[in-house]
Amino acid sequence: MQLSRFSLTIGLAGALALAGAGVVVAQGQGGGASAVPIDASGSFEVSGVQVDVKGKDADAARQGGWRLAQRKGWEMLSERLTGKKSTLGDSALDALVTGIVVEREQIGPTRYIARLGVLFDRAKAGGILGVSTVVTRSPPMLLVPLEFSGGVGRVFERETAWSRAWNRFRSGGSTIDYVRLRGTGPDAMLINAGQTLRRGRNWWRTVLDQYGASDVLVAEVQLRREYPGGPIVGVFAANHGPDRRPITSFALRVDNGDSLDALLDAGIQRLDQAYQKALASGLLRTDALLATRPPRVKTAEELAAEAAALETPTPTPTASSAATASYTVQVETPSAAALTASEAAVRGVPGVRSAATTSLALGGISVMRVTYDGSQSSLRAALEGRGWQVQEGPGVLLIRRGARAPAASPAPQATSSPAAK
């Protein structure tokens, strides 16, 4: 069993209060608190599994408690997905479980009492239970985690507990396709507290194209501390679009500063539920002005070149003299392996000279620059001949494997990135 991550979670006691305490166990893999890896695994999660186990010593009791949690968690998951309980052996469960979440635990010399969460591999569990694991998701949404603390608003200007909480949020089961950033490189300059107040569509369009997103979500929290180490009140707000249209707002409270991560994790769960409801009701529609690309103004040199081209007759192109051009291709990349496989598959298409990723978005839609001997329509036909499902937009192709996207899926938008220039 691979222990991927432990987190401290506290159950909600009403709409405005959180209570309880727990133990945070160090990560098995990934960086420390200053470099929380983005969790986009999409595992099935079963929480609230109660265990009470005795053993010859504390370690044996704890291991026995985790084993029991795996069995109970699988029964709860199978009943949730299929309506009936099923059981598996410990060896099979070891291959399915991707992590144990410690919600609360008490460790004695020979006894272990805990409330645990169990994470199951989505693809493997779905295959065993015979259920579909495909989630119809929204267009890529750039997430801006805005935190106000001490009267100062921060996104990526400095590392915040709010951005770390969003990075450890498991978004694979959500219908929102979050584009989450680490805050490195140009992120702190492009996405900051001041940017959330700008309404200019041209600038927002440039920023969204940089990250391969179609729209923006501003998740805001205001932290109010009564005194150092004392109670904390978090006022959460979910906003959408450059105009920051409100989706929902609420407040949560913890009794001491050590429960800050629990407060933020609970707030993120409610914000995600609000975003999913807004998507289902049609409130997360992309702004028409944000989706529209204004006409490009030609320079004097380009106008002069066009005039000269009109005066000079050009030979009619033949099939043997197809022009080589570069095209923008968007591709769904749920994992790094999927990205590598997609690049290799596109390079194998006849006529493709090169294919390189210019904008990476694991768990979302990445952008490739493809050099091809022919027109965009012929490139589309070549990709479809290799089994890709292709959607064509102005100057861009969106490709995916598997079943054709539903009719409501948005058309691909033209993207640009500094690496492609």
Helix and strand arrangement:
Blueprint lengths: L43 E11 L3 H25 L7 H7 E11 L3 E10 L1 H8 L11 E9 L2 E3 L6 H8 L9 E2 L7 H4 L10 H11 L3 E11 L6 E9 L4 E10 L5 H22 L6 H4 L8 H12 L12 E10 L2 H12 L4 E8 L4 E10 L2 H10 L3 E5 L2 E5 L21
Parallel strand pairs: 4-6, 4-7, 10-14
Antiparallel strand pairs: 1-3, 2-3, 4-5, 7-8, 8-9, 10-12, 11-12, 13-14
Helix pairs in contact: 4-7
Features:
single chain, alpha+beta, globular, five-stranded mixed sheet, 14 strands, six-stranded mixed sheet, disordered N terminus, 421 residues, 27% strand
Word description of this protein:
This protein is an alpha+beta fold and 421 residues long. Helices cover 29% and strands 27% of the residues. The strands form 3 sheets. Strands 4, 5, 6, 7, 8 and 9 form a 6-stranded mixed beta sheet that branches. Strand 13 and strand 14 form a beta hairpin.
Structural class: alpha+beta
Number of helices: 11
Strand content: 25-35%
Q: Major beta sheet, specifics? A: 6 strands, mixed
Shape by Cα distribution: globular
Report the radius of gyration as a whole number of Å: 25 Å
Helix content: 25-40%
Distance between the first and last residues' Cα: 45 Å
- Contiguous low-pLDDT stretches (5 residues minimum) are 1-34, 317-321, 403-409, 416-421
Extended strand count: 14
Mean pLDDT: 79
Secondary-structure element order, N to C: EHHEEHEEHEHHEEEHHHEHEEHEE
Condensed summary:
This protein has about 425 residues and is an alpha+beta fold. Helix content is about 30%, strand content about 25%. Mean pLDDT is about 80; it is low at about 1-35, about 315-320, about 405-410 and about 415-420.
